[in-house]
Amino acid sequence: MVYRLAKYVRIRDRTLGLYYGLAFAIISVYIVGWKLGVNKAYLAYEPISGSIKLELVGSTPKINLRQQEYCSDMKCRLCDEHDVRYPNTDTTEPLITTYVREARQQRVCHRNATECPFASPFQTALWDDYLVAGVEHFSMRIVHSVQAAVFYFQSRDSMFKGESRNMKGRLVGRTKSGEVHTLKEFPANGQADHIGIGEILHAADVELDHVLKGHIRPIRETGIVIFCHVRYFNDYTFFAPAPGIEYEYEFSAANEVEAIYEPVHLGVAWTSPVDVEERMLLTRRGIKLVWTQEGALGKFSFSALALTFAIWLALLKVTTIIGDFIATRLLPNRRAYRAAAEQDIGDETSTGLDDAGLGWGRGSGDYGAIRSTTTVGPP
User: What is the pTM of this model?
Assistant: First the structure.
């Protein structure tokens, strides 16, 4: 029967000692500085759930259409929020109309016909195209709420739920290099947030008079899709979690156009020998805003903290194993180091080590392996 007892061997080698010291420092900075300090690895997170209410408000200001450059190529019209927003219902994907075609169509195939030689039973007789003037001057009125449902119902702590009226927020943008910067701040003042359509376009780096790749008409006439992210977090303080939730808006554009076709039937004029049925086909193009709520809320977790420290110890153990391999397999004095590290001792066997060879002081360049009390190396 054999019992293995760890033996400590101190190897006086500057290169090996430098490796161990440098590896220990890098691992410690990674765990303590990055994982615990920056990434808050002592927190357990729960994805949020929430709701959002959107409303287009405002109207076209008193602008001179003759002074709008885009109105020189196509007719413009002044519209209110009911004409600009589509649909006029509660939705998280509203379309902000910038271009409209009103096509008056007549039925060319009888309603009871069994066959129709045309691609559509309706053919366009007249049409009118126009742009919505001053759409950048409208704004979105936004109210949203959020919660981490499991954390909240377990603790009934209000820090795990909130509403935008009572939370601090900000609108952020990104530079070409990806750096995040604040464009607008929203205080917790009990008021709904207002973000202008012009501010959304600026944050998403979109110009309505520019042309999307693969198209020949400007965005004002083709439309575009903008993803609107509302992100929540409560780990913004040094010692997280923070007592309150904060949020930020971020907008990003997709290289996609958006069009909606809406038929409005005008009725049937009964005449002899055939009846005439007409409809107005409205083609809308504009800025489709796709809103999403994302993020996670954190709370202190002892298990998460213990796991982080376990990873720290495991990485140090791996560092020591690599150091032991280098010392006993690669260094010039590897045989002496291996002989000092491996020793069989019976019931009546002396260790063969005198007290002079034992020591706890660590000299310059010592390699501090997990196994180390016998000093091996030049004096």
Answer: 0.79
